[in-house]
Design a protein that fits this description.
Elements: H1 4-13, E1 20-22, H2 28-38, H3 44-65, E2 74-80, H4 84-90, E3 98-99, E4 101-106, E5 113-118, E6 131-139, H5 143-156, E7 163-170, H6 172-179, E8 184-192, E9 195-196, E10 202-203, H7 209-214
Length: 221
Amino acid sequence: MPSNHELESAAGSSQHEAPVITLLSSNSTIQSLFPTFLDSSITEATMHQVVQSMTVELVVAAKKEDPSFNSIPVTLVPILRGALPMYVAASQHFADPFCVLVRGFRAQEKSSVRIDWLGRRPIPLVPKNGHIVLLDTVIATGGTILKICDELMAISGSAERHVTILSCYVSPIGLAAVAKHPLVRNVIVAATAERVDEHGYVVPYPGDVGDKLFGRAEARN
């Protein structure tokens, strides 16, 4: 089994680049929702509605790009916690999808990402000819997505797996990074940011999406 370093090197050196579809310029629904998505003062309920509505548009675009989504098994992998509303919306538009929850952690003083799979590992839940759909509200550098895909490669062994990424808001550098991973077949995004700042945040910054959806977590003593 290849090491994480080998997998990361393979992802970085691959000539593969998945097609990217950005909806903002041509989708009137996304155009109307996106300013609210960026608004730091919206209520939690409104943010849920916005993310779910944007996700529906992403799923419609994904199915148009790949009609096999109408017939193949799908495993939805929402990246917690911000992508939970994406899962709620997406799960209603795929036939009997599986679900695997995942979290990504990055220590402030370190650049490496740690992935925490919640419950059963995802690959046993993906039937033959199945497809994995990663859901992430905001992709800044792409580090979490790349780490997830690397671990999927390591778990899969020789099995063929395909990943489609659906995201509400992505930076140019994050978009370029995830599209080059060998597992990724398509990337569908609602809108792209201008850039990533020196702290790794997308610009314009929409605020902490998890906090906007679920409220700020109270500090523990």
